[in-house]
Amino acid sequence: MRFDVLTLFPDMFSVVRDLGVTGRAHAQGRWALQAWNPRDYTHDVHRTVDDRPYGGGPGMVMMPGPLEAALQAAQAQRASAGLAPAPVILMSPTGRRFDQLAAQQLAASPGAVLVCGRYEGLDQRFIDRCVTDEISLGDFVLSGGELAALAVIDAAVRLMPGVLNDDASAVQDSFNPALSGLLDSPHYTRPEVYEGVSVPPELLSGHHANIARWRREQSLRLTQQRRPDLLDAARRQGLLTPADERFLSLLATRRDKSPGDPGQG
Ligand SMILES: C[S@@+](CC[C@H](N)C(=O)[O-])C[C@H]1O[C@@H](n2cnc3c(N)ncnc32)[C@H](O)[C@@H]1O
User: Fold this and answer.
1) pLDDT 10s digit of each residue in the chain, 265 long?
2) Catalytic residues
């Protein structure tokens, strides 16, 4: 997989290229990253990439020319590496919300060109001519698309086979099919008692079926509390077992505190 990133701040991408699991996978050659700075595709002495918006108003807008020249260079290099033209994904608060399914699709693909906006955004003509998809990280506005692109790259690369030490750990994460798309259960490690609070006895029992049931129930409980929409989706897809439904009905009648509840402990 290869990511090409159009950005005015290429140095920001050392975070995924050099550090952590994505950095290790990059060093192993499992994925590649190339940053393209639109400033390198300008023709004036100031290397201008932005200008005032037509119609007036605050801020500046990224000019289409340097962006398109940088994109052409990126696609040409991908072609010479034998890759098909990649989707061109603009990071944008007006885009489709990024989620685990989109990360899975990206992880199974040859990669993409990610476009990072700055200022008030990009000239619409570049978007209309060149962008195939728009992704939002959420309903908030960042100063630039770089943090969004870093999140997208990280979420996709960690799903590639062999990137995590234990491939099963990604499968057990929140939103994954192995968890019926629900939230992950709480985790514990040593010490067995911390500040007077013990690890839940089920996890110390060594009884695999009981441990699995406890984790499933915690996952159901947390999802019901925080993301009932995910629970509804799992139910619609027939992913909840009769035992799950019995536990959820029981929950509705109980009001005790559990791990992860706000204010617990
Ligand atoms: C200050 S923002 C521009 C916001 C734009 N004027 C608007 O209101 O939709 C600059 C750039 O940050 C990026 N950005 C900001 N928020 C984002 C989000 N929630 N998801 C993805 N990218 C975002 C986009 O690339 C955007 O072009």
Assistant:
1) 999 999 999 999 999 999 999 999 999 999 999 999 999 999 999 999 999 999 999 999 999 999 999 999 999 999 999 999 899 999 999 999 999 999 999 999 999 999 999 999 999 999 999 999 999 999 999 999 999 999 999 999 999 999 998 877 888 899 998 899 999 999 999 999 999 999 999 999 999 999 999 999 999 999 999 999 999 999 999 999 999 999 999 999 986 566 766 555 4
2) 93, 120, 158, 173
Rounded distance between C-alpha atoms, residue 42 and residue 45, angstroms: 8
Beta strands in the chain (DSSP E): 2-6, 32-36, 50-51, 61-62, 88-97, 111-116, 133-136, 193-194, 197-198
Residue 54 neighbours by CB distance under 10 Å: 8
Q: What residue segments make up the domains of the chain, in order of their start? A: 2-157, 174-253
Query: Was 167 annotated as part of a binding site?
Result: no
The CATH superfamily holding the domain 174-253 is tRNA(m1g37)methyltransferase, domain 2 (1.10.1270.20)
Q: Check the annotation: does 141 bind a ligand.
A: yes
The reply to whether CATH 3.40.1280.10 applies to domain 2-157 is: yes
Query: What number does the ligand 1 atom closest to the CA of 139 have?
Result: 19
What is the number of the ligand 1 atom nearest to the C-alpha of 138?
19
Indicate the pTM of the whole model: 0.94
